[in-house]
Amino acid sequence: MAKLKFQTPTGMHDILPEDQAYLRHILKVAESISTFYGFQRVDTPILEEAELFEKGTGVSTDIVEKQMYTLKTRGGDILALRPEFTPGMVRSFLQHGMHNLPQPVKLYTSGPLFRYERPQEGRYRQLHQFDLEVFGDQSAAIDAQLIQIFVAILKELKLPGVVVKVNSIGDSQCRPYYKKALISYLRNKQYAVCADCRRRLKTNPLRVLDCKEEKCQQVRSQAPQMIDYLCQECKDHFKSLLEFFDEADLPYHLDPYLVRGLDYYTKTVFEVFANLTPENAEGVGLALGGGGRYDGLVKLYGDRETPAVGFGMGIDRVLSAVKRQGVIRPSSPSPKVFLAQLGEAAKKKSMKLFEDLRKANIPVSESLGRDSLRAQLSRADKLGVPYTLIMGQREVLDNSVVIRTMGSGAQKTVKLQDTVEEVKKLLKGE
Ligand code: HAM
Fold it and tell me: Is 83 close to ligand 1, i.e. is its CB under 6 Å away?
């Protein structure tokens, strides 16, 4: 095929009809479970002030440093295509005075995000997330509940081997001690890590633990662990979280080096995978989602202490996993009736009948562009509908319709105004 003049931008893709059925199904499952748990939907703009992410996500994170799509408006504002939901959700929470509502406030959203990534399987420049955020509750019970929701969504989507990797990265009290210990461990290993990590050593040493390079992973395997540096409060929080996991039978795996690549996290961090077992969770597959607690971010934007926790589920990755699994095959309702017509006048009348069938919730298909009855009946056969309604010139004059039972070929004529009721009766008897 000749090269097309226009194609989707690198790292971005169309979501075609065959995938739309999966997408709708995933969103339906995620929304119904979340609303059951008391979450309400908020939609934020795709563009936000770039500074929102610089301050929140963090200037030294890959997302802000390398992946943001930033633009200057004609009015001179510096905006960014949102690379993640959390900062915008916090802005919305504060801007609309939701801190005055009874707490906790539970919000969810979904939609496209943009990250200038190196495109590869499961890593796109326009990605989609389903995102949950809870504001105003500091208890580990809420962290556990969120994770339970996430696991429930994936299980409802019939994904096997769902495992939560979890860690605590402490808070502003204890993390500085850990950071110091980590830097001193890494100091004489700077030539054993990759060039990126050598730089990270100065800007964001915790990110070295997150690097996927083989040699950095080796260095990591002997590194001090945050869990040994947690202050009493963070330790109690983490212990309580794990007790909730045990009680709820949530499949988890402690990952002492899980840090996540965003600056705002405190205490709990987690990522969720499929096709693993808690005992054998070392696989480096792609996370279907991740999240954690961020007790300092609301204060950073609004001078108001509000604990918060949330997660983002990667819809593109979940969609591929559900498709690959092959257990769920969502489809749109198949038509029960085919509406065939012969001649211009019949075509016009059948448009009104088509609309009446829609109002009566009867899935119907047609082939208005075709004129031959044989072609239309063969289309009806292919669709496997039990009945075809035929409107020819005689029926137009008589104000009637022929109902053909496709299996037997039997036909009967009914009045046009009775057609919908007749079809309903026939379908009920199926
Ligand atoms: P994140 O780990 O950056 O967290 O993204 C969450 C999930 O989005 C990932 O686990 C992955 O499934 C999916 N994802 C991320 N980047 C891509 C990509 N380039 N292509 C395809 N899928 C991708 C956050 O975004 C946080 N805001 C989550 C959160 C909410 N934390 C607290 N509240």
Answer: no
Q: Where are the alpha helices (DSSP H) in 74-166?
A: 86-95, 140-156
- At 284 the pLDDT is 63
Distance from the CA of 330 to the center of ligand 1, in angstroms? 25
Report d(CA 292, CA 200) in Å as an integer.
22
Q: How far is the CA of 56 from the centre of ligand 1 (A)?
A: 15
Q: Whose CA is nearest to atom 2 of ligand 1?
A: 290
Read off the pLDDT of residues 304-338 as tens digits, 9 standing for 90 and up.
899 999 999 999 999 999 999 988 888 777 899 99
Residue 43, domain extent? 17-174+230-325
Residue nearest to atom 25 of ligand 1 (CA): 84
Omega of the bond leading into 104 within 30 degrees of 0 (cis): yes
Quick one: pLDDT at residue 6?
Answer: 96
One domain, residues 262 and 401 = no
Using most ligand atoms within 8 A of CB, pick from 317, 318, 319 the residue to mutate for ligand 1.
Answer: 317
Q: For residues 413 and 317, state if they share a domain.
A: no
- Residues forming a β-bridge with 289: 272, 313
Measured by CA distance, the residue closest to atom 18 of ligand 1 is 123
From 283, 303, 325, give the residue that closes a domain: 325
For the chain, which ranges sit under pLDDT 50? none
